[in-house]
Write a structure and sequence with these properties.
It contains 16 helices and six strands. With about 350 residues, it is of the alpha+beta class. Helix 1 packs across helix 5 and helix 8 crosses helix 9.
């Protein structure tokens, strides 16, 4: 029997409207609506066609219902130009990540959550408070993904072929999740990770929404990645864009993020801010970065996969157990990258323990 919610999930993951899917399936949009509402069930032959069109294994559509992420629960990094189709496809990827996360929880002991509620603080104070809580001091953060994972955040990658979906985050019960698109620069990804951390600690229990919430998360990310005392001590005066390009290496942020931070700290004037933004745009620094850094990847998923591979459990077997396409698993886990070097990392990688399976 078809599980209606899973049909809707797979359709959204493929970026299809009910009308578009109905045309591919050769039925009316109303028929698709009745399938997804559970009013009627497709024949076994139609279900096979559905699976082929959506490129999901047939068992996926008959498994128990899933805990689907709804748009109101997710904080998106980008709002202005994002289409409903792009949003729904990204949220569907997040729901598939829930399936993998639940399966991992059955087999591994994962890091505990260590986030605090800072909804009553300003973004700048919240950034300082969280740094103090985590013992980070004023030093630059070498790897945002590793830091989030060490504090119990589940971090997954997105490979949405669109620049309108940067990242999003969501609380699922007591577990925070962050999803990072890998389309843009590595520096952009670090800022996205800090931005979503801001949403998790500032907006978990309500508060501002929409543009105001996004502005608060931006201010948090800027303060968290570039602490005021450190920036002021090292950059008391700025006269040229080259100074900014050289300075941004320390904090591994984009040129534009560095210019923004210098302006908010009043190290550069309004006139300098406008001038440097124009110069940076002329150099193409809005879409590419000078002295680019290596893209951050997950250490937790690398450890999980290594442990599974040691037990001769491959990514294909994981996908089969979850009844999802192998590509979806790979897309969520930063491409199943090779060993991640921890040389010079400030934070020790989380300890993982394989839980014996019941016989």
């Amino acid at each position: 029997m078809l599980t209606p919610g899973r049909l809707s999930l797979a359709r959204k993951r493929r970026g299809l409207t009910k009308k578009g899917f109905a045309e591919l399936l050769g039925v009316t949009p109303h028929t698709v609506l009745r399938y997804e509402s559970g009013e009627i069930a497709p024949s076994p032959e139609t279900l096979e066609r559905i699976a082929k069109i959506l490129n999901f294994p047939p068992p996926f559509f008959c498994a128990p219902d899933v805990d689907e992420i709804v748009s109101d629960a997710a904080s998106f990094r980008s709002l202005t130009s994002m289409t409903a189709k792009d949003r729904d496809a990204a949220l569907a990827a997040g729901t598939l990540a829930y399936l993998f996360s639940d399966w991992v929880d059955e087999n591994f002991s994962m890091p505990d959550v260590s986030l605090i509620d800072l909804k009553d603080e300003s973004p700048e104070v919240a950034a300082r408070s969280l740094r103090q809580e985590w013992g980070l001091g004023e030093q630059p953060i070498k790897n945002m993904v590793h830091l989030l994972e060490a504090k119990g955040v589940r971090v997954f990658s997105l490979v949405e072929n669109t620049r309108t979906v940067d990242a999003f985050s969501v609380w699922r019960g007591t577990r925070p999740f962050v999803f990072l698109n890998t389309v843009k620069t590595a520096e952009h990804g670090r800022f996205d990770a800090a931005h979503e951390l801001g949403h998790l600690v500032l907006h978990r229990h309500g508060g501002p929404s929409g543009r105001r919430a996004e502005e608060e998360a931006n201010r948090f990310a800027s303060s968290f990645l570039m602490p005021s005392a450190d920036v002021i001590a090292r950059l008391p005066r700025i006269h040229t864009l080259n100074q900014i390009v050289e300075a941004k290496k320390r904090w591994a942020v984009s040129v534009m993020a560095m210019i923004y931070r210098l302006h908010t700290l009043e190290i550069i004037s309004d006139w300098q801010y406008r001038m440097f933004c124009i110069q940076a745009s002329d150099h193409g620094y809005r879409t590419s970065e000078p002295f680019g850094v290596q893209r951050e990847q997950s250490v937790v998923w690398q450890k999980v996969l290594t442990a599974l591979w040691n037990e001769r459990i491959t990514k294909t077997e994981i996908a089969e157990r979850l009844s999802v396409p192998t590509a979806e698993i790979e897309n969520l886990l930063f491409g199943l990258a090779g060993a991640i070097s921890m040389t010079g990392e400030r934070n020790k990688p989380p300890e993982l323990r394989l839980v014996p399976r019941s016989t």
